[in-house]
Amino acid sequence: MATYLEFIQQNEERDGVRFSWNVWPSSRLEATRMVVPLACLLTPLRERPDLPPVQYEPVLCSRPTCKAVLNPLCQVDYRAKLWACNFCFQRNQFPPAYAGISEVNQPAELMPQFSTIEYIVQRGPQTPLIFLYVVDTCLEEEDLQALKESLQMSLSLLPADALVGLITFGRMIQVHELSCEGISKSYVFRGTKDLTAKQIQDMLGLSRPAVPIQQGRPLQAPEQPVISSRFLQPVHKIDMNLTDLLGELQRDPWPVTQGKRPLRSTGVALSIAVGLLEGTFPNTGARIMLFTGGPPTQGPGMVVGDELKTPIRSWHDIEKDNARFMKKATKHYETLANRTATNGHCIDIYACALDQTGLLEMKCCANLTGGHMVMGDSFNTSLFKQTFQRVFNKGLNGEFRMAFGANLEVKTSRELKIAGAIGPCVSLNVKGPCVSENELGIGGTSQWKICGLDPCTTLAIYFEVVNQHNAPIPQGGRGAVQFVTQYQHSSTQKRIRVTTIARNWADAQSQLQHIEAAFDQEAAAVLMARLGVYRAESEEGPDVLRWLDRQLIRLCQKFGQYNKDDPNSFRLSESFSLYPQFMFHLRRSPFLQPILYAYSFHGPPEPVLLDSSSILPDRILLMDTFFQIVIYLGETIAQWQKAGYQDMPEYENFKHLLQAPLDDAQEILQTRFPMPRYVHTEHGGSQARFLLSKVNPSQTHNNLYAWGQESGAPILTDDVSLQVFMDHLKKLAVSSAA
Amino acid sequence: MSQQGYVTAPPYSQSQPRMGGFSAGFGPPNSSLHYGHYGDPNSSHAAPQPGPSAIQSSHTSSGHPASFQGPQPLPLTQHQMALPPGPQIPPPANNFSGLCAQSSLPNMARQDGIPGSGLPNPNLQQLPGQTPGPGYHPQQGNYGPQMAGSQLSYPGAFPGGPAQLSGPPQKRLDPDSIPSPIQVIENDKSSRGGQIYATNTRGQVPPLVTTDCLIQDQGHASPRYIRCTTYCFPSTSDMAKQARIPLAAVIQPFATVPQNETPLYVVNHGEAGPIRCNRCKAYMCPFMQFIEGGRRYQCGFCNCINDVPPFFFQHLDHIGRRVDHYERPELSLGSYEYVATLDYCRNNKPPNPPAYIFMIDVSYRNINSGLVKLICDELKTLLDKLPREEQEESSAIRVGFVTYNKVLHFFNVKSNLAQPQMMVVSDVGEVFVPLLDGFLVNFQESRSVVNNLLDQIPEMFADTNESETIFAPVIQAGMEALKAAECAGKLFIFHSSLPTAEAPGKLRNRDDKKLLNTDKEKTLFQPQVNSYESLARDCVANGCCVNLFLFPNQYVDIASLGLVTMHTGGTLYKYNNFQLNSDSPQFLTDLRRDIEKKTGFDAIMRVRTSTGFRATDFFGAIYMNNTTDVEMAAVDCDKAVTVEFKHDDKLNEDSGALIQCAVLYTSISGQRRLRIHNIGLNCSTQLADVYKTCETDALINFFAKSAFKAILSQPLKAVREILVSQTAHMLACYRKNCASPSAVSQLILPDAMKVLPVYVNCLLKSSVLTGRPEIPTDERAYHRQLVMSMGVADTQLFFYPQLLPIHNLDLKSDAVPAAVRCSEERLSEGGAFILANGLSMFLWLGVSTPPELIQGLFNVPSFAHISTEATLLPDLANTYSKKIKSIVEHIQNQKPYTMKLMIVKQREQPEMLFRQFLVEDKSIHGGASYVDFLCCVHKEICQLLN
Fold it and tell me: Where would I find the Sec23/Sec24 helical domain in this sequence (chain B) (predicted)?
């Protein structure tokens, strides 16, 4: 049998699913004692080049409360043309089209390799994708120019039939009409006044007048194509116009006096964008793409006033509840985000500025709608330019890697219930028999809406085992979960992807080692991280770090092998071995554990410990923190480079050594989204802080014994090192007092 | 040069040969002021009552002029003038659409020519010493026996009952025997016309407004700038109360002066700024008395002694006058300007040059009528003619463009744009200006973009079906734009309909004929919603003047729409049922003239007086935030402010009554300036002095404005009664105190007021003061508004139109023919007349107009061929045509509004409209004839005297 690592990988590749536990504890009580909840990471649209979609409708279970999709786990009576639902055990007739099926003539959805299958269905009219650019004009000239160029360039990347619209904002908001000849037209709104969707539509002339025809006038052709066409036009029709329009775009013309921030009406601009799409294209795939170069400074959604002498809220202000505009602004953006989600549209935020831009308040716009959130220093950086370009990347099959308006439904066999989901989604509030009363994340529903998603979009879904402690291991020994994702494909087709998985039940008392062995510590770390972040955001009070620590200690107590009160006896099995380290780095950073590679003359590039001891003078380090790629030249290497050895033919190998991490970094940079910040630095360089802040401070100015040793670089920090952390953890785990 | 002939010389009889019998009535020179004698034995002291029985007078239908007055043969009999009954006459195609639609009107129109009910009037028939028959006693100046007749319409409604249409003809007063406005005008012309009038004497009475002469400023403001109701104020308030002569000045601070008169000098004291009295803040002027060898001066207004600033010091000559007296305009002239310093500027910043914003209603109607295209095409050439200072190359005025229907469209026409940008503001609830840079531009720099825009606007909205409009937000937008640009300016709004779209200032049709002659009639003249008042206030506060061009097809509520225009010193123009072909010339001429007008912006006027009296009331296109500062967002050459004065102490006869009017304003080039007008009046303890120096034209201006203001708060009836009673009081007081003793029944009018009754009657008959359902409410509101800002010359013409015979012209002379009195009797079948009142112009053609005149004017062979459609006379190369066109041009010259020419043929229905302007006759709307009114006033006087 393959190892669990292989099993996990295989499952991930086929179904886009990773469970924290791959063998499930069979009772509620035991499940709660596992500390890490039974949960999975689901990537609904995981790229499957080998999965040809089928061109028909899925077959559903006829029980109204179930409606599970026919899948390979169902028992089929080929003779009677019946199938039994593996979730509710309802026996269902096959539809007439399936009359010809037999053991040897199975439809795809019954074949085991199609545990994930995609249907293309014909439902409703197909509307082209919509891209609505919302552009801040309170930018420095250079920034605006770069942004304009990026936007102009993007027109060539859009699907030709996509509809595109442009809203610009500064002190005021302009909604540009795109089909004008001879004169450029825009509708202007003041940035201080919030408007309802109805008002916005009225003001844009989108609501149809009651009596449009004047008496005595010849009746015109009754309907012009689509009323909103003035603001949203097919790219192929207006790309020249729009290119010119973008080209003529000026910085916000209103004077900004000394000591003031420019008046930036981001809140109303977004509100108008949302209202425009809401009135014209509800429930169709649409991206609102917000490009902003600073914090909103007026109107609803303002994050900071325009007086420069009043700085933008700091962490301390927020903590002390001293951030004047935060609550109101957050509420504004939350309302917008919820409306957007209801409409099935998504909001991207591209914020490029050296100072803060108020993403904290605005984050829900992207989070709830599945939009991208990208932060950079300037629009004139490759970080932004490449990232933005990558939004329009195409997948292996030549299709845009974006999908819209997904509805994810989760069905469980009866021993399981759904506790909630954490991810770029909103609840659709669909209650049902498989919905748990205990919520983890966005709960109380079995369906979620994900307005914007791509092949990487991953949701964490948390389950609750409801089987009672004394009950036998459920029938068949397997529990099943089905994920049904209906979405609008970038080709505007409506598609349904169905993934059905099953896992074995095990009695936690007698078969704990099976459960333990099937632990996916990476998935578990991510699932715990999401829970932690969710708690941090949604709950006040309990310190998330303490909660995380507590969970970790409990896990160690449960799965560690040790003698009571003897920290040195503490051991964790291999399937748990990395987990504490992940938690350590999670506590220290906004993200999970960065990867560190070392390049030296001593051998091929190798991964090394994310530890200060890895920083050696004759090494080049490459650190990938997801958002940052850092190349760090050790002291000696840096000196050699300054001396120019790489240019000497006899030191060509040095040249290769220098080049190797660059090439590797390039590879990462080319695929990662969003494009990471790329830092090339050296020993003593100011940017070396990016590395030093991430490595485990095993050597600091505090543990003097390390000084002078050739074993790494000391970090000037008071943070505890992994070693200390582990020691402490062991102590707590084995403590009988805990 | 003495111009005091009115005081000392009684040359009345000599200079007025046509006054015939009246001259004899003057008797000895010292009684020359007695105009006539009008017997009335009625000794009751009752106030005039409305109703048929209270006030009766006589007028008869058959004239018999030949009996005593040769030169005025009566041209027509009543019968000849009577119109055929109406059905076959098409309705008139003209502006006053509401007036003539009824087929019954032709009958009513002749009511004044038909004797009344025949009921004898007991009062008048008991006149002592009257003989039956003509009864005219030239020797005594008596007239008006046999006063039985139809009722005078004043003060009640005109009861047009059938009874009045029958009855025996009776004798009537000869119209030639009562004071003639034309005669007065002509006399003044012949005595003072063409001469130089030097303003070197305090309290001298200037020539009439109708008299052309050259005015020389020698220390007092030219009458073009200031005219007064009297040039000699009574010394005490008791006297003033007794006489009840309004003490008022009509100030037209930016009046146009002819080419041959000197424009105002500009005094620049640099950073020191204008020199002002420390106490009352009056500006240095000829009324300041230098003392102590020139080191100090005494203020003529408050008598405060001030130090002369060192830079201004100058020695005095032997008569105590500064040596530089004639070198400094502020010492020797009545009118001059100061360059203002930063202290006089908004926020102490030098002002920006003003801006003009063109705001065009592009709703369906205006597009469909072709108006939008007309405006856009015209602007392309017009923008080159923006006013500029004489010494400057081009105008400093910037221009901006807005179109609107129920939303607003702003345009960015910045010179570096390849094409204009349109910015739509649909948030009309809280309108704002969407752009700063590129909205207001220099036309020379942005010419191509602006022209591009003006080409596009008509096309852009070519298929609009938007019929709703907004209005208040349009003004608001313009005002905000000026505010944002930190400059004053004018909005030119071209609007056509009642603003019914959902927005601030939304109006509904509240016109209600049932309100006429009720206490609620006044509401029709008040704005419908309050927002217009606050908008007006904001506009004034920001120096935003609103010019409104209206093109209504129906009721648009001018009382509301025009309010902001009124308070911001703007001009209201109205073109009913605008037709591109016939009305374009009138509209375009108005537009051109308005754009080219010299205007002062962001103005504030202060009227200071010497001790003993002060300005108490102000009338005009102004806004008053307090009791003294007259604010005007702009003031142009046609706008006049009428200021009423009251005593607060005794006036000193030696020092007289001094008035200084100072207008602080921003010039068209953006320079902050002060325009100062000074005038000195006399004071007297003798009422006769006051009466001698009255100016009837100014009085009428004052009466009109005060009455038109009063109708906002009082019932029309009360306002009219007050006018009549005040007229009677003034005349009765004269009679009592100034005239030599004579029979109570004699009507004696002061020389300077002898045409007051006819003018007051004209005022009473004006559409504003006539509550008749035939007169559209908007028309009344429009007239009301226009009159409120008129100067003396304009009100004179408006209330007593000019009627010029053109059938017997001396084609060789350049002169404009002498006018005739506005009465039907002056018309003749064989004649052709031009009538003009400043708003309308008619060419009336008698049925027997000489064919050569017709041929010459219209190039058609006969009367029947003349088309009345035309609104312009064709350009023909013959002397008739040239001469008459030059007359028309002369009439039009210097008038604030372009008069649309209407051609009226005798005995065709449109003649009804024309008839209303024959103001000496009884009006179809119930106004009394001159004769009737005179009788009525006389009766009141008699009652007062008893």
Answer: 696-795
How far apart are the CA of A665 and the nearest CA of chain B, in angstroms? 45
Instruction: Tell me the residues of B at the A interface, defined by beta carbons under 8 Å apart.
Output: 364, 407, 410, 417-427, 430, 432, 434-438, 452-453, 456, 460, 463, 465, 467
Residue B33 DSSP label: T
What is the distance of C-alpha A410 from the center of its chain? Answer: 19
Phi, psi of A516, rounded to the nearest 5 degrees: -60, -45
What pLDDT digit, counting tens, does each position of B815-860 carry? 888 899 999 989 999 999 999 999 999 999 999 998 888 998 898 9
- Chains A, B: CB contacts within 8 A come to 68
CB B537, CB B475: distance < 8 Å: no
Q: Please report where in the chains the tokens 């108490």 appear, as a residue.
A: B616
Spatial distance between the Cα atoms of A692 and B694, rounded to a whole number of angstroms: 100
Instruction: Report how far residue B744's alpha carbon sits from residue B732's, in angstroms, rounded to the nearest whole number.
Output: 10
Please name which of A338, A277, A336 lies closest in space to residue A301, comparing C-alpha atoms. A336
What span, in angstroms and rounded, lies between the C-alpha atoms of A118 and A486? 9
Angstrom CA distances, B212 to A590, B196, B205, B333, B700, stand at 92, 10, 15, 21, 20
Helix (H) / strand (E) containing A628? strand A628-633
The residues, any chain, with a CB within 8 Å of residue B69's CB and separated by 6 or more, are B20, B21, B174, B176, B177
Residue B532 in this model has a pLDDT that exceeds 90:
yes
User: Above 90 in pLDDT, residue B920?
Assistant: yes
Taking the CA of residue A217 and the nearest CA in chain B, the distance in Å comes to 8
Rounded (to 5) percent helix, strand, coil in chain B: 35, 15, 50
**SS3 of B564, please?**
helix
Band of pLDDT at residue B295, cut at 50, 70 and 90 = very high
Rg of chain A taking only CA atoms, in angstroms: 28
Instruction: Provide the CB-side half-sphere exposure for A688 (13 A, CA).
Output: 19
Query: A240: exposed, middle or buried (C-beta count within 10 Å: 0-12, 13-18, 19+)?
Result: exposed
Neighbours of B203 (CB within 10 A): 21
B15 three-state secondary structure: helix
Q: How far apart are CA B245 and CA B763, in angstroms?
A: 17
How many residues in chain A? Answer: 738
Q: CB of B178 within 8 A of CB of B143?
A: yes
Interchain CB distance below 8 Å, B425 and A205: no
Fill in the amino acid letter for B561: L
Q: Which of A102-106, B151-155, B283-287, B848-852 has the lowest mean pLDDT?
A: B151-155
Q: What is the ipTM of this complex?
A: 0.84
Whether B423 and A186 lie within 8 Å, measured CB to CB: yes
Mean pLDDT of chain B: 82
